[in-house]
Fold:
Amino acid sequence: MTSPDKRFARDARISWRIIEDEAILIDHDEREVMRLNPVGAEIWEGLDGTRTVNEIIDYIYHTFEVDRNRARKDVLRFLKELARREMVEETPGDGRRPS
Amino acid sequence: MPCTRLPRMVRESLSLTSPMAQSSLVGVEPIEQIVMMEDHNEAYYAWKKAGLRDRIVVHVDAHIDFRWLPERDPAELLESPSLSELEESAQAALWNFSGRPAETLIHTGNYLNPALREGIVSAFYWVVPDGFFKTHKQRKLLEETLDTLRKTHPRGFQNMTSADRWLGAEVYGKPMAVCTLADLPEFEERVLLDIDTDFLVIDSISASYPFPDPPRATPWIWPDELVARLRERRLRTDFVTIAYSVEGGCTPLGYKHLGDDLAMLLREPSPALGHRQIMALKRQAATYQAENEIPEAIRVYQRALAVDSGDASIHCQLARLLYELGRVDDAQQHYRRAIALDPSYRTAYNNFGPVYFALGRLAHAEAEYRRASTLDPDDAYAHYGLADLCSQQGRWNEALVHYRRAGELRPGDGRARLGLGRVYAKLRSWPVAEQELRQALTSDVYAGQAHYWLGYVYGKRRRWDDALVAYKAARRLGVRGLRLHLSLGRLYLRKRNFYKAARHYGKVIRLLPAVLLISLRRLPRRTIRMLLKRSQDDQSG
Structure:
């Protein structure tokens, strides 16, 4: 289970841009183009290595006015998926990438 | 073939007449602009440099030389102004995920693609050897070549048509046709004549096509016959490109001269007596050679040398024949002379070792490499060939000797370091293997493979994270294949990342049929015949 105090940063190999509230992600290694819905896009944008998972959950909870428990579950599940795909990596907490 | 049987778009393009000025009737009038090249993709650069536009190309070749090339950089997708436009463009193009600039992906197998896309070529006729349409089976194989193109990129390849001795389609909206010389239509405009020397020596689509087979005993068509048949088609041209295609094994080095003879006949349709004599003598000698009348062949080549002692191809053939008679010193002398006259004769393809090796005929390959190494003891390629072969057969110590020798002959060559690293890894000498492979990382060409083998070494030493990093680096540098995905799958499984493991095992499953086919190709012919017979027996039983 991902700890709420952890911080994650987007993997540098993924190029991305927000278009019409959705995030378009290009994974060159996997030769894939992915599309994230507006909630996924917000989470993705928040993964800059400085925010904790808790802060991202709070942000989603306030922005999309969803049940807090639901926001927490969705964010954690989404982060797990990104981690499985090696699209994010855990950071020490000061925004630096892990060495 | 009468023009009435041409696909509509081909007919339309033919009716567009363009100036015939400064063009020559092939085989009748001298052609001034003839560009010779080893690699056929140089034709594209030659056309580009000459500023040619909207020209019909008559591509006389045993290979289509048109494969798909990634068309656009995926980063362009991020520039899309809207999601709907993004979706539309994502479907319409082939995307370049290689991480390399598109122009660096052009090679001998695809150069006609950018020529068509960039408007240098407006219509493309692939003239195939007669044998390609000779039987139903051959024609079917040809159709499959086109069908594979269609399946890979349906938007780029449309409206396939076929007639008895004719296949046609539209490529990027431009007409293309496949036919033999006999069915090539008469053109009302000057064309670009683009010839590969391998057209003269490959007469059918074999099991290993498009990869080379051991060569035919003699060309199926000689340069003077080809020029005569082109003359019959009343082709006019102002620009000819001729590729030798020796590197890669499509044209045997012994027949490289056919490209030069062809150029000479196009440049001077009535060549000087000396040239005609040499061509006739080479043909006569090759015929003797094909009939295994070696002393006769040598005698005729020596007569040819008396006419022109500076012909590298004759020295090269004599070296081979004298070696077969056991006259090694004489053979070496001729080989040295051939290289002195034309340094391009010192090539990895101065023997059929690479071709036999790829076909899994290892005993033949070894004999070829040994001959090359005897004729020229300083031939690094022959040592590489022997080293690869010994390594494949588990003859590790011999492999080490040959890789070391090749490394001495070509200091700083990553291939020797990679080979040594691989062999030491197989011998479980991990520190030396790692050291050699690390040195190979500095090579542009072999870095990917070096990363792969470093991954193997780290994996064996249970340095799982290092292994994963190395395999991923190998992948980023373009290494693909079953073993890499198997290794990555195994490592992700160990890390309990089942998603990634499943993805890599999925790729293994997708690659498996192709790998099995390649393995089948490498089986000795006797085994293939036995398997085929057994399957026929099973079916009839």
About this structure: Chain B is about 55% helix and 10% strand. Strands of chain B lie at 24-25, 34-37, 55-60, 121-127, 157-163, 166-171, 174-179, 191-196, 236-243. Confidence is low (pLDDT under 50) at residues 1-18 of chain B.
